[in-house]
């Protein structure tokens, strides 16, 4: 989740009032300490686990201000958890692994952070883009199906009916692998421009910003505007970002029917082209490269009353070829 896209947060820093990365302000943000690569050291890594470190205070304090939260706390993974993180990151697509080794500055964990994960950009003195990733420690505690179901349920109002939504992936993989696939795809996008730009704030640091790319062409006309109308997108909010949930649980079946008539792998991926890419690569990898089943179920009284498998959607399949770049 590059969730600063979903919160337009006014920040008061160093006497300057500016807009967070969701709405631009890149020239101002580049001078903020959290955006300077020199503040992250020059540690060379031989293993991905070497990137796992206590969250630097400049990162923690920045996100506490941006999210207006006082309960964010540094979480330091155990050595066993670091070993498991290494195993999961080694299973990422080839392009993703190469980009992470060159461009990822750190993997940090913050307790109570909104959502499952965050990827944000950093610049060196020449304006080259690097990234760091933040994860909620719950991703180390839940299995994949549990984590994705937890995430999906934040799209719905708690008091909106007796139906429930469950996401199942036929695997014993940890929740961390799902969110690592998702967030690391944002890193690749920042660096490789698989979409025209990952967020407004970085546009000024690219030599060229195309109107579209092979992945976005025909689906997206701009960062948040689709080329054709998908009315269900108006009800899609996650984690309470942008306001409380709008979707009613009793409408879940209609919502997923509409999703199956779209080119998106998930509701979350329908929000903008950057999240579309992150979710698309994630579920493409799980279903097409690992042979797993990704299934959305709606249950009432514990009994399944609806199900769908987005990987079988012809409109989704039509976009599979755009993922080939990750496997070269």
Strand content of the residues, in percent? Answer: 15-25%
Biggest sheet record: 4 strands, mixed
> For the largest beta sheet, what order do the strands appear in spatially?
3-4-6-5
Morphology: globular
Question: What is the gist of this entry?
Answer:
With 328 residues, the protein is an alpha+beta fold. The chain has 9 helices and 9 strands.
Detailed description of the structure:
The structure is a single chain. The strands form three sheets. The protein has a four-stranded mixed β-sheet with strand order 3-4-6-5. Strand 1 and strand 2 form a beta hairpin. It has one domain. With 328 residues, the protein is of the alpha+beta class. The protein is globular and about 55 Å long. 28% of the residues lie in helices and 16% in strands.
What keyword list fits this structure?
328 residues; alpha+beta; 4-stranded mixed sheet; 3-stranded antiparallel sheet; 9 helices; 28% helix
Draw up the topology in text.
Layout: E1 10-13, E2 16-19, H1 26-29, H2 57-67, E3 73-75, H3 79-89, H4 94-103, E4 104-111, E5 117-123, E6 129-135, H5 144-153, E7 163-169, H6 175-192, H7 252-259, H8 273-289, E8 294-300, E9 303-308, H9 314-317
Parallel strand pairs: 4-6
Antiparallel strand pairs: 1-2, 3-4, 5-6, 7-8, 8-9
């Amino acid at each position: 989740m590059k969730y600063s896209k979903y919160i337009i947060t006014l920040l008061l820093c160093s006497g300057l009032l500016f807009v967070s990365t969701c709405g631009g302000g890149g020239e101002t943000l580049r001078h903020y300490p959290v955006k300077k690569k020199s503040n992250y050291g020059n540690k060379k890594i031989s293993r991905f686990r070497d990137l796992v470190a206590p969250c630097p205070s400049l990162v923690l304090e920045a996100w506490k201000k941006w999210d207006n939260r006082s309960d964010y706390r540094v979480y330091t993974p155990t050595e066993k958890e670091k070993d498991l993180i290494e195993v999961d990151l080694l299973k990422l697509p080839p392009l993703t692994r190469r980009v992470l080794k060159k461009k990822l500055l750190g993997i940090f964990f913050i307790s109570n952070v909104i959502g499952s994960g965050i990827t944000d950009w950093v610049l060196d003195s020449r304006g080259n883009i690097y990234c760091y990733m933040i994860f909620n420690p719950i991703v180390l505690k839940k299995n994949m199906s549990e984590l994705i179901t937890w995430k999906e349920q934040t799209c719905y109002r708690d008091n909106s009916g007796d139906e429930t939504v469950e996401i199942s992936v036929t695997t014993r993989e940890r929740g961390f692998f799902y969110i690592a696939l998702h967030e690391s795809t944002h890193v690749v996008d920042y660096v490789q421009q698989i979409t025209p730009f990952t967020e407004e704030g970085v546009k000024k640091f690219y030599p060229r910003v195309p109107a579209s790319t092979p992945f976005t062409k025909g689906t997206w006309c701009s960062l948040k505007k689709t080329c054709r109308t998908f009315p269900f997108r108006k009800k899609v909010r996650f984690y309470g970002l942008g306001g409380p949930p709008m979707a009613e649980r009793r409408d879940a079946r209609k919502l997923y029917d509409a999703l199956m008539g779209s080119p998106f792998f998930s509701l979350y991926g329908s929000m903008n082209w950057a999240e579309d890419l992150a979710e698309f690569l994630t579920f493409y990898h799980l279903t097409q490269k690992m042979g797993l089943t990704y299934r959305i179920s709606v249950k009432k009284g514990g009994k399944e009353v609806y199900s769908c498998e987005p990987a079988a959607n012809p409109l989704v399949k039509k976009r599979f070829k755009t993922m080939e770049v990750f496997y070269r």
